[in-house]
Amino acid sequence: MTIQTRIEDQPKAPKPQQVAARTNPDEVRHDWTKDELQALWDLPFNDLMFEAQLVHRRWFKAHEVQMSTLLSIKTGGCPEDCGYCAQSSKFDTGLKASKLMEVEKVIAEARKAKDAGATRYCMGAAWREPKDRDMDMVCAMVEGIKDMGMETCMTLGMLSGQQVHRLAQSGLDYYNHNVDTSEEYYPNVITTRTFQDRLDTLERVRNAGINVCSGGIVGMGESQSDRLGMLMALANLPEHPQSVPINMLMPMEGTPLGMSEKVDPIDFVRMIAVARIIMPMSVVRLAAGRELMSDEQQALCFMAGANSIFVGEKLLTAKNPEADKDQVLFKKLGIQSMPAHSCPSEKDVSARA
After folding, report:
1. Is 285 a catalytic site residue?
2. Is 6 a catalytic residue?
3. Does the predicted TM-score (pTM) go above 0.70?
């Protein structure tokens, strides 16, 4: 049975059979339209999951999930006004600002994470952008963790061209800079920087040869159209982000979004599936919000193509499932850890097509 015949009788979305006819597990596109994404979203749930599995199994081992650990290396005191973030100095959340951690302590924490099964170590600092004086310590962290054989990721806010160059020289594998939501809804969440500021930093990172990690947050009051707009913005970049974290908002007391309503579980799974289909070689990370998800919802997310998670008790300032709970779930599902440096690249398309 073809993709076209499975959905040709569906009344929703403009010409869904034409959309589906262009969905090819071997194809990597950068010209997705909102109508096409809406047509995917509107597929019957089982069909959407099936299409996502076809794409996922084309580029990844079906039962491998990449394990990352995230450490806040500088907490609180950020001058940005991101409405979801407890680390903003604009909001009264009770979080005290801290100084940048010492290099040796960060490397010691990374060693613990490696021993616990993590293959990628992510470090976040609550800055609008790093100061040049901080770059020596930041780069030393990257170099020390790479010497342990782990992949490295940093999220430090906006970066200048020189700062990107220094991180590239230190061997940084990934730089995280989320677009958060659609360009249209973005001003409702953040006013201290623009959507274009985010894209400019991603361009600098990409041009320096560092892998891009960029995704968004679901549950900030945005519409379904905004959620698809966020995915479309990422999928239509010159190169897909190598890592795409999809976060479910963890409401933080004292922030403007602290009383947001919970996201419908099936809608969240649909987000994962659409992300997998339109960015076939990206690692799709089931990021913040797992603490609020049932085992069944997480299992559906993995079926939809999520193949990366954070392990460890915290994600910056938010709770994360305990390691024992994750191990029990992974054993039930037959999930194994993805080895480091095993993700495909768009450069592999011609070789594997």
Report:
1. yes
2. no
3. yes
